[in-house]
Structure formats: structure tokens, C-alpha cells
Amino acid sequence: MAATQPTRTMARQDGRQAAAIAIEGLSAVLEQLARVLDGMTDDAFAIVPGGPFRTSHVGNHVRHCLDHVEQLLTGLVDGVIRYDRRCRGTAIETDRTQAIEAIDRMARRLAQLGDVNPERTVRVEDSATAEGPRLATTSTAGRELMFVISHTVHHNATIGAMIRQMGGEVPEAFGLAPSTAAWIRSQA
């Protein structure tokens, strides 16, 4: 199997430029999600589609993603990111309009972050098992920005599959990793 060659050279950015690009990337992924939700019915947003999706619905995945974005935004300010602090059972899970409004609020907060130092050390606390203690580790603001982008893209892919399972349509590139979308464009 032949190795793939990069399609373009990567421009070198200073750290703050890289963080700004990551913030723009996360904003774009959230905007894609909001557009998809805007095209859904309220019923499709909160119904369990069945098939391989027997335990959750679109609204559950949206709320889960937004909880991660919320913890990231909080942690970039106070230095501690707690991904397992979730707000389950909120209107964001069942009310499509509330979910879109929450996405808009988070996009505004991202835009107001200002100059983020991606090398800034942050503490990440999370649960690794249901029975075990919470774990804590050290990371960087840049790494956590990249994680939340990847996490949201992954859930967008699941949301897209759920919508298709229910007979709906989503844009072709919805839920694709940025590197995959760039590769597909390079092949056209």
C-alpha cells in the first residue's frame, strides 16, 4: 500500500496563531451542527431512531458535545477542565431551538476568548471508569482545543448517521474530520 503524500506544505504558525485557527475550527464545527439542527424537525431531534441507535437521540449527542465545549471554555479561563461535569436532562436535549441557541452562545464565547496561549498548562480531570476515582492530568490549552474539535466532529458524524437512519439528509461533509475533507477536495 502506497503512503499518501501531503497535498500542500503546512505553514508554520506561532502558537497564538495556531490557537486562533483552532478556535475558528471549533466555531465552524459548531456552526455546521447548528445548520443541520436548523434543518431538522423538532420530533426528529428528540426521537430515538432505532437500529444501531437504540439508546440515544440527536439531542443527547448535541448536549454531550456542548457540555465538552462548556468545560473547555471554563477551563481555558480557570485552568481546570472537568469533562465529566455534564448537565444531563436539560432542555438542550429535547428542544431543538434551545440547542441552537446554546450553540450560538458558545460560538459567541469562543469569539470573545481573545488571545489564547496554546502552550498554557491546564489541568484535566475526568473519570476513566464508572467505579474508579476521578483522574487528573496535565495538558495544554492547544491540545484540549484540538481534542474538543475532534470530539465534536466524531459526534457530528454520529448525529449525521442518526438523521440518515430516520430518512433525513445532511451535507456530504458533515461529520468529516478536517483532514478527510481536505483529502477529498484534493482528489476532485
Describe this protein's structure.
- This protein is globular.
- Strand 1 (80-82), helix 4 (96-111) and strand 2 (121-127) form a beta-alpha-beta unit.
- With 188 residues, the chain is mainly alpha-helical.
- It has one domain (15-178): Four Helix Bundle (Hemerythrin (Met), subunit A), CATH 1.20.120.450.
- The two termini are 21 Å apart.
- The protein has helices at 15-38, 42-46, 58-78, 96-111, 141-165, 178-187; strands at residues 80-82, 121-127, 134-140.
- It has six helices and three strands, in the order H-H-H-E-H-E-E-H-H.
What's the arrangement of secondary structure elements?
Elements: H1 15-38, H2 42-46, H3 58-78, E1 80-82, H4 96-111, E2 121-127, E3 134-140, H5 141-165, H6 178-187
Parallel strand pairs: 1-2
Antiparallel strand pairs: 2-3
Helix pairs in contact: 1-4, 1-5, 3-4, 3-5
Brief sketch in words of this structure:
The protein is mainly alpha-helical and 188 residues long. The protein has 6 helices and 3 strands. It has one domain (15-178): Four Helix Bundle (Hemerythrin (Met), subunit A).
CATH topology: Four Helix Bundle (Hemerythrin (Met), subunit A)
Question: What series of H and E elements makes up the topology?
Answer: HHHEHEEHH
The biggest beta sheet reads: 3 strands, mixed
* Span between termini: 21 Å
Radius of gyration based on Cα positions:
17 Å
Structural class call reads mainly alpha
CATH class: Mainly Alpha
Query: Order of strands in the sheet with the most strands?
Result: 1-2-3
| Chain-averaged pLDDT | 89
Task: Classify the beta-strand content into a percent band.
Answer: 5-15%
CATH 2nd-level architecture: Up-down Bundle
> What is the number of E strands?
3
Helicity level, as a percent range? 40-55%
